[in-house]
Amino acid sequence: MSAHTHDDIDWADRLAQLRMADTLDAEALAPVARRLVAGLPERPVVVDVGCGAGGMSVLFARELGRRDGGTVVLVDATPALLAEARRVVSAAAAGSVEVVGQSGDLADPELAGRVPAADLMWASGVVHHVGDQQAALRTLAGLLRPGGVLAIAEGGLEMRCLPWELGVGRPGLEPRLLAARAAWFARMRAGISGSVAMPYGWTRALREAGLEDVESFGALIDHPMPGSDLLREYVVHRVGWLAESAGEWLDADDRDTVAALTDPEGPDFLGRRDDLFLFGAKAIHCGRLR
Ligand SMILES: C[S@@+](CC[C@H](N)C(=O)[O-])C[C@H]1O[C@@H](n2cnc3c(N)ncnc32)[C@H](O)[C@@H]1O
Hints:
binds S-adenosylmethionine, Rossmann fold, alpha/beta, 290 residues, 8 helices, 22% strand, eight-stranded mixed sheet
């Protein structure tokens, strides 16, 4: 159980998977970082809330290093992830780029007291982990400098990585894993203290938070077969994690199949396959403070 966040997730335990995802996503997200940084003023302040293992801020730091520098502020509620993010982003930052780490809770309305005003505020995969998502967006919008941009990565298309038939268990395991995950997600949201419905999409939510020039775009994650060793390792983690977090919504035979697929000593181990892939899309939604 998490001692730091509202979602009952042990985020520190997910460090290895987040690091692998950062590496695999970097090619698709580098153009996103370039696009978001391109319109910023000189020596901007970029804040990454819920920074996780720091992958996106590595890309922001590189973009700032290609310009006249600036500041990257890392914010996360999980100390182990914040420490890792500081390490990797500092290593990527050239001399004129300053890196600051700040522990903080997105659900804390007083967050503004600890985080500097931003020219670009990035929040990927974190807003849906707080009870009142609309209030969190208002908090983030309130942390922008005039003309500043809030960009959130939420939704998109779930990653796919497995062939339909695996030679073990019933065909179509992956859609069942994702359906189980969706059931887990609904319960996770309902279980957050102070959880309120937000029955509309992210672009409307950004407008409700007082932002203008709201737009969305996608970033395709596309690692075709046969995939690298890293991709195989990531898929083994991902399949095991999906089954672990959402196992109660899976039939017993699917749980057995996952156990076989993730057993490095067994004949069905995913880590030896040459037909794994990673295909999905991130959706990025942006709005500007006038
Ligand atoms: C799904 S990970 C996303 C990490 C990274 N932004 C990415 O896209 O890979 C969620 C991150 O949000 C952090 N987090 C969860 N709830 C939070 C909260 N209330 N305030 C700040 N950070 C939070 C977790 O510690 C974790 O690092």
